[in-house]
Amino acid sequence: MDHLRRGRRDSGNPQAGGLGWRLHARCRHTVEHLFFPPDNERHGAQVRREAAAKEICADCPVIIDCRHDASTQPELVGVWGALTERDRSSRRLRATAAAS
């Protein structure tokens, strides 16, 4: 998937804090359109697409690494680590509120 081939440093080791985890991602060999919204996507289609993407993520061996990468970049679009844009935004807001 193109979103897994970004030009960032990659250690090759999913536990080393680099981006090598991407080599072990279940989504690596799936269709990208499940993880990223097309233009003018209708709500019902969005719900179905996100559910399908989250299902792929559910038993991914690197889900934690993916979530961490998406939250530290932050990734503004798509499903990452079984979290949608709304999910990640909600987590950031809760974290900010808890810190204050």
UniProtKB/TrEMBL annotation:
Its main location: cytoplasm. Binds 1 [4Fe-4S] cluster per subunit. Following nitrosylation of the [4Fe-4S] cluster binds 1 [4Fe-8(NO)] cluster per subunit. The keyword Transferase does not apply. It holds the Pfam family Whib. Residues 1-20 are annotated as: Disordered. Acts as a transcriptional regulator. Probably redox-responsive. The apo- but not holo-form probably binds DNA. This is Transcriptional regulator WhiB. It comes from Prescottella soli. The gene is whiB.
